[in-house]
Amino acid sequence: MKTQKDYFSEKSKVYEKEPARVDNVTNIADAILNKLSYDKTTTHLMDFGSGTGLLTSKIAPHVKKITTVDISPSMNEQLRAKQDTLACELAMLELDLVTHELDDTFDGIISSMTIHHVEDTLALFHKFYRMLNSGGTIALADLDKEDGTFHTEDMGVFHFGFDQEAFAALAKKTGFEDVTIEIVSIAKKPYGEYPIFLLTGRKP
Ligand SMILES: C[S@@+](CC[C@H](N)C(=O)[O-])C[C@H]1O[C@@H](n2cnc3c(N)ncnc32)[C@H](O)[C@@H]1O
Question: What is the pTM of this model?
């Protein structure tokens, strides 16, 4: 079996030590909670590319359960270490969502700073659509189109951010309704500032 490269093996231990990164995900979580309503007693979300669980931990107090999906063993290890502190039920899946098909369905899918690691974005939107219950929502945050300077190392990146209009068009083409997209945060690096959008939508 081919072993997949863990692009985050070095970064995972220091990932949450950058205050600007934590601030960015906090802004994203606040924007998601402003835009969408979840039910603490019933909502089951999937967090795609959950990493160390920054977004999951912020959304957890507002939902019943989050299933995290992440390909990186080292990032999952960081999340596993703090799973008892999360304010909702947690299920963790260590897999590549691009190549795996999940039978589970969810009331919503959340994702932060991950989709630029996926080559075929339209195929991913179709997969999200299949994985949602009727009325289920997506809340996807990622980099606005950038000049390729955001990542300074090879992290398995396929897109230098996304054009907002084109990204929203993919969601609509897939069948999502009530699609909105707006800048909700700025990811600050020592060498620049990178706007981050949040796209939301609903499966009819
Ligand atoms: C930049 S990190 C973002 C982590 C977290 N969402 C946050 O905002 O802090 C991207 C994460 O997506 C995961 N990832 C990338 N491609 C993936 C795939 N195809 N399937 C599952 N996880 C993936 C990586 O392993 C990594 O943990």
Answer: 0.95
